[in-house]
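Design review, sub-item: ligand-bound model
Attendees: FS, YL, KQ
YL presented the inputs for the NDP complex:
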Amino acid sequence: SREWHLLSRPVGWPKSEDFALVEAEIRQPAAGEVLVRNKFLSVDPYMRGRMSAAKSYVAPFELGKAMQGGAVGEVVASAADGIAVGDHVLHFGGWREYATFDAKQAVKVDPDAAPLSTYLGVLGMTGLTAYAGLLRTASFKEGDSVFVSGAAGAVGSQVGQIAKLKGASRVIGSAGSDDKVKLLVEEYGFDAAFNYKNGSVAEQLREAAPDGVDVYFDNVGGDHLEAAIGQLNRDGRIAVCGAISVYNNTEAAPGPKNLARLIQTRGRIEGFLVGDHYDLQPQFVQEVGPWVASGALKYRETVVEGIENNLEAFLGVLRGDNTGKMIVKL
Ligand code: NDP
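KQ shared the predicted structure:
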């Protein structure tokens, strides 16, 4: 069984020398454990944070050990009650072909109810992030105009569509290619979208949202956040979900220069972590599951095949190679 180890902590953009794909023995399950053959692995932007030693909300990856991440696989040996060989489970032993772990960390998933990869994306962690961040943190309500960055990504594409389905007056998205912008408007029903690489974010947002924005869902930070504050309406809300534009910075990025606008608008900026919102999971599945099944909410996945390409898939997320959730298929 092969697994990816972190050898050294990347400075700036991660380099292939910081990692190694290592051969490891498959360990049979002890009492209470299961052995799982992974079928789909998740690669997510937050993993960049775990490669650094800096204190954060999850512990850094340990050097010389297998990295971790979301994964869905099939149970091939079980010494745990309630989980049988042949069951499919969502768990945290990603970045490897086989994983042996405490069955309490496994959540059973149904391969007949939805494609297995969707438990990592549209019906999984990134989906709940979109749902909780928009509805709870940003207190979205019908009639709001919503701007979301990273809008063709896993979280962003779902934020925009949920806002639309729940009666947003206008949904605006930004993304890093003209093809992604086209997808947002033509397939996902965004009212306007722009390519942030084509010019000033502030100017393009002003054009796309002439009447301002009530909610900004921030996946990106930097210029995007400053531009959104500049267009914020009275009582506007900004949910800070991520700041991918600064994850590989070696020095602190400058903060937005226009924070005083929050006084005028009585605006609110609030960060959130999906891990604090799992109480919404049943409601999320109940509401979003049928939209996904009926096609009312569309999703894309970018699928990279093979454990040997796990690292490239992760780097691809940071580069923007993905449209929708980036998935590694084994
Ligand atoms: P995505 O599927 O959105 O992939 C990341 C995307 O970021 C890329 O496809 C790329 O698209 C875009 N990107 C990369 N660099 C830049 C840049 N410099 N400026 C603008 N966009 C950039 O990932 P996720 O949906 O999984 O995550 C989206 C955000 O949400 C991330 O910031 C992540 O850290 C955060 N997150 C936060 C959670 C929380 O609990 N708070 C939970 C899950 C995710 P493009 O081509 O458009 O540039």
